[in-house]
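Lab notebook, bench 4. The sequencing result for the construct came back, and we need a structural model before the next group meeting so we can plan mutations. Quick request posted to the team channel:

Model the 3D structure of this chain.
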Amino acid sequence: MILDSVFTYCRKYIDYIKVLVCLIFALNLLRLSYKWTNHNFIGGEDENLVLNLNIFLNDFFEIESEEDFVMDQAVFINISNDKELINVKDNFGIPIGNRAITDRQKLIALIEAMQDKQKIAFFDIFFDPAHESAHDSLLNSKLTASKKIIIPSIIRNDSLIEPKFQGLIGLSSYDKTLFSNKFVKYTYLQNDSIPSVALLMHHLINDETIEKKGNYYFTGDTLCLNSLIIDHPIKSIHKYDNDLNYVYSELGADILDVMTPDEIQALVAEKIVLVGDYDDADFHQTIYGSIPGVIINYNSFLALKQHKHLVQKSQIYFLFMVYFLISMSILFDWDLYIRQKINHKLRKFKIFNYLNSSALLFNNVFIAILRNYIEIGVLVSGLSLLFYYLYGQYIEILGTSFIIGSVIVIRNYFTEKHAH
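Done. Here's the predicted structure in token form:
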């Protein structure tokens, strides 16, 4: 009797219950979408969307490149041709030969000449603890004394490796996609505690950072993303521009050997100084081609500077309403009604009739399920495209599509079972 009363009550208010379920589903999908977007994993469909969307927006809307503007804010210094030889020993301390490392004396000379007149400097050089130079002690003291020079730590074999020297240290790490092994996504706070080079630059220049509070990331009191797909304002860099002016300078030949300390200070004054390998040793594959690691870090800093990581309230409301309407369409069968209307229009196409006949051949199970997932994948991809156009951020596609597609498959299963 009690169960019958409960079922009778539920049937009476079934529509209200469905709306409540849709609200709960939309809120949880919103939470999962945020979590997945912050994950450094990225699938091939996200990678292709980023590349094709960027090309489409630039061509269709004739968006002006930011490259010239952001390059004017920085000084690019190449150290790939400035080397010194050091003795190398094996694990037992036995000498095994020599190795070329970045010339410590020239780095010291650059630091002394700049006199911290730069806005910030990033030396994209990993100072390996195993490498010993006669000038290590002096270089360490210069780096420690400066409050405007960042040096990188790295991740090797899933372990954090700190540099040999002290000073301002940020993590330099490049997450790759699962399918094409290309860099697409940059994580600012690694393991929720280790600041990246880009985040440290942003903190020192703009006095902002990212902190994790509970399950969410914040800049100040504003919700933000910790992991961003980088669009790369600077997609390539060459020694000379079209007018044969230097784009990047050699540390020794173009700066230390020919410029006075006053000229070097004037060159770097209130600029971001990016010291790294611009030739070939530190290039990383991206969806736009090979880009030097120092430029990837700079591009990632620019995304923070432009506040592309911040999540506005309008973004939350927009996504919640979209997810709520999608869940409503599933539970109230609006999507089935729309599909019937579309199918009626598509019957005149032979390919559509062929797919329908194939579905019938396989008892309308496998192909029907596959079609559901494909349709939702296209829908979420379109949603991600619209979201990027409105807010400059991407929505995670794979997980979101799988959840929505699975709900539709389950709904269809019980609908057909009930009909039989």
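The mean pLDDT is 83.
Will bring this to the meeting.
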